[in-house]
Amino acid sequence: MADLSVNIGKLNLSNPVMTASGTFGYGLEFQDFVDLEKIGGIIVKGTTLHHREGNPYPRMAETPMGMLNAVGLQNKGVHYFVDHIYPQIKDIRTNMIVNVSGSQVEDYAETASIINELENIPAIELNISCPNVKQGGMAFGVTAHGAAEVVSAVRKVYKKTLIVKLSPNVTDITEIARAVEGAGADSVSLINTLLGMAIDAEKRRPILSTVTGGMSGAAVKPIALRMVWQVAKAVNIPVVGLGGIMNWKDAVEFLLAGATAIQIGTANFIDPVITVKVAEGINDYLDRHGYSSVSDIIGALGVITSIKTSRGETKVMKGSGVVKGDLLVSGIVETKQETIEYVHASAEIMADVIYKKEYTLPKSYDYYSITDNRTDRYMCGFLNFKFPCSVSFLSYDDSVFVKNKEKLCFNNTNIPIEFTKQSEIEVSKSSVNMDKAVLDKKLLAQSMLYEVFEKQDSTLVSRKINIKKSDNNFNAEISYIFNENIAQTSELSVTD
User: Fold this and answer.
1) How many Cα atoms occupy the beta-carbon half-sphere of 230 within 13 Å?
2) What is the reported pTM?
3) Residue-range domain boundaries for the chain
4) CATH class of the 6-296 domain in this structure
5) Which of 130, 380, 389, 409 does the annotation list as catalytic?
6) Structure confidence by residue, pLDDT tens digits, 107-163
7) Other C-beta atoms within 10 Å of 170: how many?
8) Which end of the chain is least crowded, N or C, by CB within 10 Å?
9) What is the spatial distance between Cα 256 and Cα 245, in angstroms, rounded to a whole number?
10) Residues 6+ apart with CB under 8 A from 152
């Protein structure tokens, strides 16, 4: 059994499988089908400050390999959630996460503030990307400024793990991701649904009452996978991948692309126990390939960024994914005359390569401060003889010593008489719990040592820190992506 646990900010998941908001209700609707405690996290349906009726019917439509929805964040508001839903779900032994939406920045902040007070809700997912509402929703998530504005406002009032859900309906999703990271997001989730449309040809009118809606399902997976891969390289916070995940293999692909965790949405409607099946499938994959932890495969996709071949025949191309041992350039070349030529292959092949380092830091450390308590002792020295000028000398358990030496001088001539003043200053020692700021500084220092002294010939692309708590320590895993020359020469034995 591999270690499936992952961290999203301060949020620890027993496995990387979560449910997507709006596809799993409040979890209670599925408890007769699946053991909810075997799911890494359950993101409940979208919650707004005030009651919302949602959009008129029809608001769902099937599409090839997917579906369209235009539900429109139907819910009874955050106060109803606190009074009636929360008491029913607070004791479910997994991470219950609330998806927060709004029509204006103030709505997001107030809703998040209310959720912040619920002890058994460890995180929220901030939905700035819903395409199915007329006000707010996606409007905030399509510009870096708008996204950062909402996240900043929520960050001021929300103290737990903050996940921000991104819209795919943008020109450059990495720009939005970097903006929300800078504004205080602990993680990003992507993608939300793609804006789509369905038409009834016989009736010559749109199927959805809103004309357009959000498309999800297997058909969107290639787009989602590409965006997760792009964002994972662009930010230093965990990425949660979703979009068209229908089985364990899809989930593994998202993890390889750089997702720390995944969400399952549309597949829940097809198979109510798909979440547990996917978690079991991930574990089986890890066991078959000899991995002890799911973190070993997160972002483990080496991608070639450039190729310069001076001699030999190139066997890969820019953008190819490779693993150690793959043949990159061959010294066996087929000429235009259909003959074989043997050459010494030579090339520079740059690729983004993943490295992982583990560090252990104690949860507390000793902090020393100087007190006002001080004791002085004087010594007099003549030639090689020394004798005390004072006998008053106390000893402190924790202290530092300071020495001052002065020589007796007469008419600018040194006399072999020396006076020494030794001051003992008491130092107060206390045990201080490691806060996040200090922990981050220490880990950054460790990271810089590795980057400067061990990887000086490489270019750092990204750095991600995953922290797990044990009884006495912080166990940190830092994942690096370095762009470096991966070409290595090996001899080929050629026989007739």
Assistant:
1) 18
2) 0.74
3) 6-296, 302-362+434-485, 364-433
4) alpha beta
5) 130
6) 999 999 999 999 999 999 999 876 544 444 456 778 898 899 999 999 999 999 999
7) 19
8) C
9) 14
10) 183, 184
